[in-house]
Please model this.
Amino acid sequence: MEEVHHEKVLDYLQSLQGLGSEQFLATYRHPFLLENYLAPSSRTKLGRVETISEVDVENLLLPTSTSEDEPLLQARAIPLEKRDKDSSDRMIFVGRSANNDIVLLNKMVSKLHAYFCQLPGSRVIQLVDMNSTNGTFINGDRLSPSVKTNLDDADVISFGPETKLEFFSVPGFCQLLQQLAELPD
Model:
């Protein structure tokens, strides 16, 4: 089945419900970054996904549901993948510049801030700070420049002091979606 790119966690939840977990895992092969859904007022505009206008941000702050999970369901899920699918380069670049694979439009993010890579022959994803001005952090700990650091599900990655995204492997994201839907494994 061809992979479909959605914007919100809710869209992927609906995809999981339609496909089942085995087919979901076969369809979506890349990890995800989730926007900081706990603080919708401090959203960063992200490249490669539809950005939120100032009016939309105001509307997002209005209660639309009594569900505790509503902010998470409305959070954007960003596929952690190369922009150019034909590229042999295994590094996924993140930064403010438009030529990055994931563009973070925030003045506190360096033009070429960091990159993600996968350990050859494994599913382990690593993050490397590229000597950014304001630093890259995992769960509050600043990364040393040029040092590969393994990521775990639900790690909170900060690109500078303002841009926070949560990392999930495909199985971890599927498990999160199952918990949201209260689906059996």
User: Anything to note?
Assistant: The CA atoms of residues 1 and 27 lie 6 Å apart. The chain has five helices and twelve strands. The radius of gyration is 16 Å.
